[in-house]
Amino acid sequence: MNEATLEQIDIRSRCSLCREHEVLFGRLQADRRVYAECTWHLEHSKPEEFEYTYQRAKDARNAFLKARKLLDAHIEEHGCERQ
Questions:
Q1: Is residue 16 part of a domain?
Q2: Rounded to whole angstroms, how far apart are CA atoms 79 and 13?
Q3: Which of 8, 35, 37, 81 has its C-alpha lying 20 to 30 A from 27's C-alpha?
Q4: 17: pLDDT confidence band, cut at 50, 70 and 90?
Q5: What is the model's pTM?
Q6: Spatial separation of the C-alpha atoms in residues 58 and 9, rounded to whole Å
Q7: How far is the C-alpha of 75 from the C-alpha of 70, rounded, in Å?
Q8: Per the domain annotation, does 71 fall within a domain?
Q9: What's the pLDDT band for 43 if we cut at 50, 70, 90?
């Protein structure tokens, strides 16, 4: 086995047990669920509730995008595999 292959195996084994990856992935999934729920409420909101519901959906989307960006950065930095 060459040195690059051993390094790849080391990265994979480290990241398969990487707690930070698990936490970031869990955060992404939770934010995705909240975003999906907010968009459903937005679609079904009464006209007088629209602005409030729209803002909540926007905030949920921003949280989801932030979580995705953090997970992507972690994966790139550590060489972890996507779940």
A1: yes
A2: 10
A3: 8
A4: low
A5: 0.75
A6: 40
A7: 9
A8: yes
A9: very high
Q: Which two tokens stand for residue 17?
A: 């047990």
Backbone φ and ψ for 36, nearest 5 degrees, come out as -60, -45
Q: Domain limits at 19?
A: 3-78
Strand positions, DSSP E, 1-83:
none
At 49-76, the pLDDT tens digits run 999 999 999 999 999 999 999 999 999 9
Joined together, the tokens standing for residue 75 give: 């994966």
In a domain, 42, yes or no: yes
- Number of neighbours of residue 4 by Cβ within 10 angstroms: 8
Q: Say if 83 falls within a structural domain.
A: no
Buried b (16+ CB within 10 A) or exposed e, 39-64: eebbeebeeeeeeebeebbeebeebb
Q: Check if the beta carbon of residue 24 is closer than 8 Å to that of residue 70.
A: yes
- Structural domain count, the chain: 1
